[in-house]
Amino acid sequence: MYRRRVKKPPVPVFPETLEEMGYIINERSQIIDSSGKQYTFDLKAKNRDYQEAHSRALADVTVRSAVARMEKELGLVEAKVPFEIEKDDTTTPHANILMSPDVKQCKRLLVLVPGTKETVGSWSRRILTKFSVEEGSMFYTAKRARAEGYGIVMLNPNAQYWVNDQATIHTPITRAFEIIPSLRTPEEHADYVLRHLIQSCASKEIYFIAHKYGAEILIQAIHAQFDFFRDRVAGIALVEGTYSIHCFPDLAFRSWWSKNAAGYIPSEEDEIKNKVEYRDATGCNCVVVNTKEYDYTIMEVMPDIFRFFNTRKNRDNSFNSYKDAIRPLNEDDPTTAMVAIHVDQNGEDGGSWDESTTATK
What range(s) does the Arb2 domain occupy (predicted)? Predict the structure, then answer.
């Protein structure tokens, strides 16, 4: 018995700009159509594959629009990685990162590491298309950072594939593609940029913000280059970070990490909002954020992260200068919160802190 082979529909091709796709960004930083209706993903659409392809294309062109705005309004520039590729070379496989022109000389340097399936300049495609282009992209973060005097570097760890003479974060549907050298994995990308760019910067006051799997990418790169970063890093913010400190048994590294890193995690139904608790898996204090929506945490905590970083400005970041110091409680610095360490019924460490705790660490 023969069965008719079902033909797959051709891969849809979408326009290259928001306007050509029938959308604009309004004054509230929302994506709207010509009738003023905000874009929404049609969950009941019969052709789900088309809807998903349309959503990806819309997010892609919106991120490109946000990057163009960051270049125009904030003065950020693209740089090709691997770094030895010439500026006018468009055929050799490469990816782009985004940075400010002063990264080599700035006093304070902020490095942004997105999570899985996000491209350079984007924190969350979900926030970008559903809520706010400025906050779903890295525009708001970069704008505030530049206003406060930070140099800035945006990593692009998911751009591993080279298809049709351009880098892409999407898994190729054709065999005609290449893996970009030195960027074969997100971890390799981060290690390469930190080793060849960040280490060449003059700043001794380096800050990091990592989102979701970006935390795993970051901790691996810093651990591999710990001899350099132990005396240069001022603060690390990990938003919904997915990693485990148990992969790094070095006690000196763990101690350093606990004094410099702060996690930000969405709340659960039975948790007190904005409390600080120690998470054994993360190896650092974590702030429970007043949101139950994953992805939206990055939007909620950005002001808190900058307040945390402000407490670290002008600090002597040599690890020996503070590793044994008793630090007074600072409500803007989650790493200073005194937490009670306890062992639960499963034998796992945990901890929590409430407003009545005012002891120094």
Answer: 14-270
